[in-house]
Amino acid sequence: MGKDGSGGLPAGDGPGRVVFLNGTSSAGKTSLAQAIQQESDTPYLSWGIDTLFQLVPPKWGGGLDGPLSRVGFWYDRTGTDDDGTPFVVVRYGPVGRRMLESGCVAAAAFARGGDDVVIDEMLLTPDLLPVWRKALEGLDVLWVGVMCPLPVVEEREAARPRGVKGLGRGHLRTVHDHGAGYDMTVDTSTGTPAELARAVLRRHRGRP
User: Could you name the active-site residues (predicted)?
Assistant: First the structure.
């Protein structure tokens, strides 16, 4: 029996399975995705929003905040909560939207090629979920909501030397507002990444 309870069965000749993790920044998605890779007895390829951002030319990305970022991706630092606490939101323009949609197709292509895939996503806007659902249509997808209390999110955010402060708070407001249910949710403040990964894998492998 494998660590994930799957029995260590090799992947078949058909499409791979997909674990879709969605949550705000610093919610623990990347740690969970890495733990899924470690705990599984079949190889899960990892794709995420940060994977896409690493492919974006800097002039179109949020780092330089140049004129081309307004058609690509940029950090909107103008928002504040009701109590006056500032937050940050990643915005995108038409080129950024096109890249996001291409990223959905690219991730799905790995699964259609026979590879298991874990997707580490932070939905920048709720209307991106239907784009993902269309790209992953016909595949065996476990939709997982990755939850975490805001104080824990901000504590993790503060511990990142290069992290963007306020991003977790900013996207926590909308990341789960897509109106669709999850197959399961996990709270990363209640267990280790390995424990949660094994729970996700048991749920995924236990489905017909």
Answer: 50
Fold classification of 17-205 (topology level): Rossmann fold (3.40.50)
Cβ atoms of 73 and 50 within 8 Å: the answer is no
Catalytic residue (choose from 4, 13, 50, 81): 50
pLDDT digits (tens, 9 = 90+) for 137-177: 999 999 999 999 999 999 999 998 877 899 999 999 899 99
What is d(CA 31, CA 23) in angstroms, rounded to the nearest whole number? 12
Q: Which residues contact 57 (CB under 8 A, 6 or more apart)?
A: none
* Cα 133 from Cα 115, distance rounded (Å): 18
Residues 6 or more apart from 80 whose CB is under 8 A from it?
86, 87
Per DSSP, the three-state class of 103 is helix
Domain coordinates of the chain in residue numbers? 17-205
Annotated binding site for ATP: 23-30
Q: Which residues are annotated as a binding site?
A: 23-30
H helix or E strand, kind and range, residue 39: helix 29-39
For 110, the enclosing helix (H) or strand (E) is helix 94-112
Q: How is residue 76 annotated by DSSP?
A: E
List the beta bridge partners of residue 193. none
Please indicate whether residue 13 is annotated as part of the active site. no
